[in-house]
Protein: HmuY family protein
Organism: Dyadobacter luticola
Amino acid sequence: MKKIAKSLLLIAFVGIFNACNDDEPPLPDNLAAFESNAKGFEGDETEIKVVLSRAVDAATPITISVNPTQLTYDKEFTTTPAVTNNAITLSVPAGQSSASFKVNKKTGVFLDGDESIAFKITSVGTPALIGTAPELKLSFTAIISDGTSIQLNGIAGSEAGSSAANSVFLDLSSNTQTPVLRDSWDLGFLGSTDFRVVINRSNGASALMINKSDINAVSEKDLVLDSLAVGQGLGKLSLVDDATGDLTKTVIKEISATDADNKVYVLNRKGGSATVLPATDLYKIRVLRKGTGYTLQYAKLNETTFKSLDISKDAAYNFEYVSLEKGATVDVEPAKDRWDLEWGYSMYYTNFGTGLIPYGFSDLVFTNKLANVQAAEVLTTTATYDAFAEANLTGITFSSAADAIGSKWRVTSGGTVGVKTDRYYLIKDPAGNIYKLRFVSFHPNDGGERGKPKLEYKLVKKGA
């Protein structure tokens, strides 16, 4: 009887377990869509991405029809991969959630700006489906977008969304996002007439000045390594660059025309969580002026000889970026008039009761302060997002602070986690276009995905 009772109990347990499994809600459809419905470009090449709602378990084919207007394939433009039978075939690799192709303008071709290509997702391999944004118009000139919905791609691999590996730059007028690995650069050299150098706040970097001008004479004996720790209650704001984008408050002082005044700095290129890299991975740097540009001296902390790298200014960009590990300049930001917002992880600040200290935040949003992008927060009690129009701009005060949006758009702890639905933002871009923008989701609690925030925006007033 005991064996029968045990068997009946086991059967009942299995039945309950299976019933619970049957009651679990199925995953939503995995939908394929373009990042936006329209895009413009003026250069020689642009990348177009198709994104899925989530990663696929197996390689998934996607077919896209290609319909050019006033253009002929292989005469004015080509694509990678190539067009075959008026279509491009892509494959989303297993474990990934996107695939992309490139459009290239042929060398020596002159266009009048009316040319475009219509792309349409025509098929997707099962079990994925075609989403609600299956079409994209690519214009061979700059466009001024009327607005769109877009999901930012902060995830580079399998990392947690709260520590997304990408920073994402977004240009509203062209509906273009540019994801960049946070760990891909270390120093930014200002491109304008001033001589300023920034460290990588998106990588949790910190730096400390050593009162020496001979870089070869500096070693770990010149500092306490733990003094470079920032975040999680440790560190001082003097170890990191100003969070509002004030370039007079960078860790590295303005580069002097007098070489002897330019001191050596020790850089912890990756931190933010009260961690400091081993001495073997720390760098010492010194920056000098060279004509209208810079010379960077750099070495590992205990090395007794240094390397040099000359950096030229380019007025079309806010900064020229350098990777110390590569010993070379690298591409990071788009041209300064080609981005408005930057989303991602960054060193910021907080107060634990004893004053402001550096603190690493996820999901921060910064405006392109150096290109005069400005922002204003609007509460829905003033006007709803849908109702806000050009007439409502009267009385609006725009802020030029880089952190005008910052972390104010979402809640990550101490309340209902998710997007704050009681507010939205106005963004004035370098051309004077004004957009209204609201965040839709960024966390499972609000129907989103951490590391891939969704937002939407609409043109309110076109620039002069």
The domain at 31-143 is CATH 2.60.40.2030 (Immunoglobulin-like).
